[in-house]
């Protein structure tokens, strides 16, 4: 005998709604909480529609990326938070099904054996030389520019996050990055 799905308590719904609203304000901790509270249910939706665990896992990454980007559009009171999230999961899974149906299947005789993952020695040498040249060009920047470029590109921070971290206006950070990237480009072109 199958059991009816358990209904969430008002406290659980309030916690989920709070996490969703905070995610809309780019709160990473709230996003983590939101994932913990909803991933099992949303995975079940994706699995049912996609039909395979691997496909559902792929779709789930797209689902949470969409949630991160669109959480600010959620309006408490218009829809329950789980309904809003389930709609995103359902739509992403359906999109995946449609795309999968439109992918042409390759004939087994047309499939090429994959190339080795190991790069050729000359490619490794060229990459090493580019890395050394880039490092040299980075050291030629001013301290503020060097720190901004390293933090943005190697640390994954956005310009807005960088500006906030440095305590400067966003426009100033954008100008600093633009000048740094122009200087890096010029330096790298001179090394070719």
Automatic annotation (TrEMBL):
Protein name: Sigma-70 family RNA polymerase sigma factor
Keyword Transcription regulation assigned: yes
GO MF term list: DNA binding; sigma factor activity
Pfam families assigned to the protein according to its UniProt record, in alphabetical order: Sigma70_r2 (PF04542), Sigma70_r4_2 (PF08281)
Source organism (scientific name): Sphingomicrobium sediminis
Keyword Transcription regulation among UniProt keywords: yes
SUPFAM superfamilies, A to Z: Sigma2 domain of RNA polymerase sigma factors (SSF88946), Sigma3 and sigma4 domains of RNA polymerase sigma factors (SSF88659)
Keywords, comma-separated and alphabetical: Sigma factor, Transcription, Transcription regulation
Domain RNA polymerase sigma-70 region: 34-101
Family membership: Belongs to the sigma-70 factor family. ECF subfamily.
Gene Ontology biological-process annotations: DNA-templated transcription initiation
Gene3D superfamilies in the record: 1.10.1740.10, Winged helix-like DNA-binding domain superfamily/Winged helix DNA-binding domain
Domain RNA polymerase sigma factor 70 region 4 type: residue ranges: 133-184
């Amino acid at each position: 005998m199958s059991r009816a799905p358990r209904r969430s308590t008002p406290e659980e719904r309030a916690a989920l709604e709070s996490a969703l609203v905070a995610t809309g304000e780019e709160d990473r901790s709230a996003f983590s909480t939101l994932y913990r509270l909803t991933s099992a249910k949303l995975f079940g939706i994706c699995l049912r529609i996609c039909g395979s665990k691997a496909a559902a896992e792929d779709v789930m990454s797209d689902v949470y990326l969409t949630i991160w980007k669109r959480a600010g559009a959620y309006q408490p009171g218009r829809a329950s938070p789980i309904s809003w999230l389930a709609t995103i999961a359902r739509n992403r899974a359906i999109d995946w099904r449609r795309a999968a149906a439109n992918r042409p299947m390759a004939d087994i005789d047309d499939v090429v054996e994959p190339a080795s993952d190991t790069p050729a020695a000359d490619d490794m040498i060229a990459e090493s030389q580019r890395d050394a040249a880039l490092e040299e060009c980075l050291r030629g920047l001013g301290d503020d520019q060097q720190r901004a470029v390293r933090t943005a590109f190697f640390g994954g921070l956005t310009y807005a996050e960088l500006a906030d971290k440095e305590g400067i206006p966003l426009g100033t950070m954008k100008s600093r990055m633009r000048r740094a990237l122009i200087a890096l480009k010029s330096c790298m072109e001179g090394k070719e």
